[in-house]
Amino acid sequence: MNAVIDNQDNRDTRLQAPSVCDEATTREAALAHCNRVFADLTPHERVEWSLAHLPGNHVLSSSFGAQAAVSLHLVTQVASNIPVVLVDTGYLFTETYRFVDELTERLQLNLQVYRSRISPAWQEARFGQRWQHGINGIDAYNEENKVEPMRRALRELDAGTWFAGLRRNQTESRAEIPYLARAGERWKVHAIADWSDRDVHRYLRAHDLPYHPLWKDGYVSIGDRHSTRPLQDVGDEELTRFNGLKRECGLHEIDLSEL
What we know:
By secondary structure, this protein is an alpha/beta fold. The protein contains eight helices and six strands. 35% of the residues lie in helices and 10% in strands.
């Protein structure tokens, strides 16, 4: 595997071009080595190295959720024209659409919006409100409105490396996410995987960046208006999405090797 980071004795040279592994080194071992080295880098260094050495095209996804401004700012400060993929279900909060407009203008984002091929109204005419029909209904809704559009975006943008703002302390299902993941010849980068809510808050304050407008109302995880609840209504962050039946929509479980 080509993406192996050489350990160096100073901060600047840790991000130099990777060496080539010999044939006896497995991809898994090399990837594990990369993740160990990334643990000692700052998020800015992780982004810089990934943009310089992981395959293009590079893309950044964002749901424009509660703390989305961090990753949007962090990555676009290094790659100002990177495509920013938003999957619009048609059921986002009004505040989310305004937040998208605000950050797109302020950060001069290269926003790429993807949607289901079938409109929300037509879906409801065919299937009803699937998010009210248990796990199977939620999964079918998510596949059509979130997973398929994101898969299509990655394919059409010919993404070689996908940046995402996932963090380990966001949900139980993300507790073990690596800084770097690889599937086939494609990569995924989680530059702030190890950040806490306090780290996020400090970054937002340092750069005068906003939280999502609904943050102040107790919304700690923000998706579609029909299946998102404020924390005070449910008492547990794990229950704030999809009626408490699940937390992940499946978008970040896309197998990059199958694109």
